[in-house]
């Protein structure tokens, strides 16, 4: 069993000692700690009960990139089927709702498999985001993934990087932060995506291992193309021999010299380890693979499961953000979402069942989330001055391409969580039944959502690192409050 | 205007009290209320106003000091004043509440308000939390703004260089052994990498080592520094980091950010004095250098601490003065003396409208007054126009009397050359340098030589200190308690690493992204370059069988050259992924329609008949309607110029010849169509006018040098090796290799591809000479001979007839070695 969480507790207590230590250092050192290297510190002394016991050791974030419309997925509202002349103002959901195996929770048609595992999860229907005065997906995604709204004066770390930095790897040969399914080259807004797909000021050691194509993931942990494992081992042997016999004996014990060799060693260990088989989804039994394989996302979910089994700490799988594609529905929303239902339904449900069957669900927090929701009529949130970016600005629908939720809505979205200590079959928060479909009960901000996720992982929302002389907290300004109600 | 998002939250659920967030990093999203007393924002102001006068810094009335938590908890002559967790039992509370003039604290002046007393009381009850490292003690180091001219200690052992006189004296005083001098080879490697970023050429190394000439090292350094292109290519990375400039990155898609690359590269080529450079950055006279002060403009709302005015304040302060204005742009800084109004005063110099001061994202009601940080040197006129204010600021920043300015830059250069700053970290110039006199000496010298950057580098490099062995460190370097014991090893930058791999493998890119010309070119020459091409459009007709195999188009142009041109280059883009062939040889490929590329072609041209062929590949199952632009410029003797550009005379075919590696097979496909329509689209025209003059000017310079990593867009590999995302200013890159980086180096495609190439080439060149092969690799990669032992190990692996694969693995082992990856 993983004992990392115990260690975390101890570390947290150490923070306090360190703080006292730093205080005692006094004036001469104040300027000196304006280092570029982040230093762990805590401002307000967390009391021992605040350092909560972690309820999860691993985290899988299933990212619905582009703005998943809650009314067309996990928060169905009044359904009106397509018809010529349908008034946009009346449109709330474009899918009828279905029962789940939990009384009182209905979700959209097309998500039948997820409906069957709803009794294992908690559904939050009241997540809210700021509209930021303008909708730019990558900017909201930056906010969601780092907890900070860009621009920032220092590069903010991704939540996976926080887990990597504070908790470290679960299995030393599996990189603690793995990012599946997002291409970062050749897609729109790629620079903006790169800006948060990073460990920021923590440095690249805690950054993501990016695996944009799940079916090619195995190659990224294999020896280079065209090199068999014997040659790979021989090459490493040659390297070590030459390093050992290097004539510059005076630098043999040098810190940097040693540190470089350690990193080379770690890399070699992973690239030649048995765990790397976890990266190869072709090794999955055919029957199981077929259940997952609804496309790149489904393959990614399968890969995530294999990696968590092998000891990954944080894995994100995205449906991939490409402007105007997938969840970023600017036209033909209904049709697109019907396809996306198919893409996500089976793999997500199977992931939960598989984790459960393997006894991993209790300690693995699975999150399904998106940067914001969508609405047929409203851009941003009520009173927003965000630019309306809808492609069609029509009052009545005359074309199936108009049928869908094509505007970005930031004040009521759904987050589904499984495992990792969250309640089973639980509903939290509520949105209005009529437009605007705002969160009307228990709104959860990005900051508080982060606090919730981090607390589950045993990271206090007040955890902070000092960078350039300033504290930088895991939740914005250390103020995130976990939604304790959702924990069992 | 900034809209604070809190106000826009519907109030029906937002019933929380607004509360200063503890230390705010742009607070745009909604925040939750905090329950606990916030030391920095609630306690510090009270202690500072009511207690500090008698109990902080050197003042310890009654033996009581609040300098730090330990002192405050320890108490004074009358014992403990704070009982942790129990305000009721704390003497301090008695003192502040008392009405007795003999007892009460503070003894004079305003008493604490009820609310303040309540806050302090809660703070003690909650355990008297303290900001780590925070102190009320005297503010750290603040030297006089004007430079001093330190007296130089006498030279010892004939070491006359002022840097050595100062350092030798420093070492002698501390009884630290003087680091030994380095060999010629180490010197050549180090100086070459430091000054032009490249490994020294092995032939030159051999000649140099054999030479007995006096002063050969200085001569070598001077030669490196007169290599305009090598110097500019290398230092471009340093300046891009410092001025957060890049060729791609956040902000460019929304048009909220502008490059300064053209101006920057030219400034380096021309060795523009540093004060001039900064003047042009702070007070731009044209658009070329505006990008620095204009920052990154985000679409939508940003926090008050990240408006472009505040970005200006932060960037100017950090880049040129080593001041961290990021804290003070939100609230008075805790780590140095800068205040919110200083940050806003500086910002207001740039602002075109009245600038409302915000503390932690909340308007204070005050409007910022344009003022700069060191009024003792003079100030800007707040009534003047923004342009005039910027000019005044530029004068003040670059004033020779502004020692902070010259100290900051010479410290940065010292850091690059010596592996550690005299002040470290280099952006915290309020830190005491380990050698104050040396810093001031260098800064004064820099002013004396009129801010000449190359001369300054030469000055450092000619010292014995630079030319001495690097310190070996037994543990992770710390910023505190530093004593100089020689230069420190510095890790190869991503750019140096790749340049070295490309030097050995010949796998450098074929074109570069930076909008620059690698040579001395007058801006007027660029302005005068007029594009000659037209967009040409090859429309593929639908056939009855659909468009099988019609996703690839060949464009073709034949022409005659009566003489060989001195230089020739081709400017090109297409709406499909294209490959360009000159006389059947592959010249380059690209897939980005929006950006034009320039490829030099003089090597492939011949006297007589020539062919330009472009193969444009569309997505499968789609007709490849091709849009192409080509403009080639050839410079002949006597300033004559010849142009071959895309126009109606070009031909195309939908059955292109096969490509065999880098060669195009057949030359004249039979079914050439000639229905090409010149495009008249105004936007397309504009793109040409915006982008191509620079590239045409570039084509006019004969450039046979390898393309350098500093000139291409950031890549995964470079990012992994530490080239920053230049959204923020990054003046110090990570010095250690991480595991993920090691993975990229162990199995990443770009490195593997380059090494395969290197393996092939060396195996071919030294087909039956493994010893020579090993020698050659060691000399090229490590700038030294292999030891007999290394030779044995290596030749054992290579065998008598080295295979390409074995050579490739040896190359990898050498590139991965600490000896290669660190400059020692």
Could you walk me through the main structural features you see in this protein, from its secondary elements to its overall organization?
- The complex is a heterodimer of chains A (about 500) and B (about 800).
- Chain A starts with a helix and ends in a 15-residue tail after the last strand.
- In chain A, a hairpin with a 6-residue loop joins strand 3 and strand 4 (about 105-110).
- Chain A is α/β, with parallel strands linked by helices and about 500 residues long.
- Chain A has 12 helices and 17 strands.
- In chain A, helix 10 (about 295-310) packs parallel to helix 11.
- Chain B has about 800 residues and is an alpha+beta fold.
- In chain B, about 40% of the residues lie in helices and about 10% in strands.
- Chain B is built from 30 helices and 17 strands.
- In chain B, strands 4, 6, 9, 11, 12 and 16 form a 6-stranded antiparallel sheet that branches. A 5-stranded antiparallel sheet of chain B has the order 8-7-10-5-13, with no helix packed on it.
- In chain B, a hairpin with a 5-residue loop joins strand 11 and strand 12 (about 640-645).
- Chain B is globular and about 105 Å long.
- Residues about 1-35 of chain B have low confidence and may be disordered.
- The interface between A and B is large, with 118 and 125 residues.
